[in-house]
Amino acid sequence: MNHKNNAAISITGLEKIYSNGFRALNNIDLQIPRGEIFALLGPNGAGKTTLINTICGIAQPTKGTITISGYNNITQYRKARAAVGLVPQELSTNAFETVWDTVTFSRGLFGKAKNRLYIEDLLKRLSLWDKKDEQIQSLSGGMKRRLMVAKALSHEPEILFLDEPTAGVDVELRKSMWVQVRDLRETGITIILTTHYIEEAQEMADRVGIINKGHLILTEDKNALMKKMGKRQMIFVLREPLTKIPSELQDYPLALTTDDNGGKLILTYDTDTENDISDVLDNLKSNGIRPKDIYSHQSSLEEIFINLLGIK
Ligand SMILES: Nc1ncnc2c1ncn2[C@@H]1O[C@H](COP(=O)(O)OP(=O)(O)O)[C@@H](O)[C@H]1O
Ligand SMILES: [Mg+2]
73: Cβ–Cβ under 8 A, 6 or more apart, which residues? Predict the structure, then answer.
């Protein structure tokens, strides 16, 4: 480990132009500190896999510098590559190999000395220990995915890349994957994942980078992003229909929707402005409005994303 540079990943001025002339990455600058879960979020074709493959040395950068744990990924390729484990988007395995053999072979590829205890612990952490002698073809989809993670971690890397770890899997499997990833982070590993599911970034990440058409549009602490871009709404479910908002309430950012059941009054406010809900409630009451229910709603990253990219 090279402690001179504290960042797990440091990227400056990265550009990738494929041999057919297609520009897949534009001037990317990105620092990822150790121990973080970073989600690279973007629609299909945004350049997520290209960025990951370029960092991991599978694709060559056209321009720019990438440092992994302080090692330049071209001039110090072997050390840089040894510091990362990659679970690629396209899973490929040898169906007839056993779990144990696959993972130990993978470790050997990195020239690491055998370490039965490490592999045993790894398989236990990923709930694969009782399957160690099974052939891969007998594993369920969820187990296969965990096996890919075990393979990627077999050589004890400091940084784990997960390219679309839950693309096309059912909700249950996705949630169990999220739990596994969080557990892995507890061991001190830096995790960089790509996803086109906003919910996944929202659930998993400490920090989110939004990528579109090869441009890293922004990187921000997830909570700060939610706070900055997110709107909070307080929704008052009305007992009786209201034809218009009473003039005494006109100073509040209220909107009215009506239906046969009475409709709703929706108060929209920024998450970082102090808004006294009890003040609004008092005013509703003195105007004869008694909500039968009150609930709040906060923008999801999806709504934020749509706002950012201006797509509807
Ligand atoms: N080998 C390649 N040659 C040319 N273009 C490519 C190649 N690989 C990917 N692309 C293009 O680069 C863009 C980004 O692809 P990719 O990084 O796979 O996006 P994502 O992972 O975000 O879906 C896409 O338009 C894709 O068609
Ligand atoms: Mg991809």
Answer: 55, 57, 66, 67, 80, 81
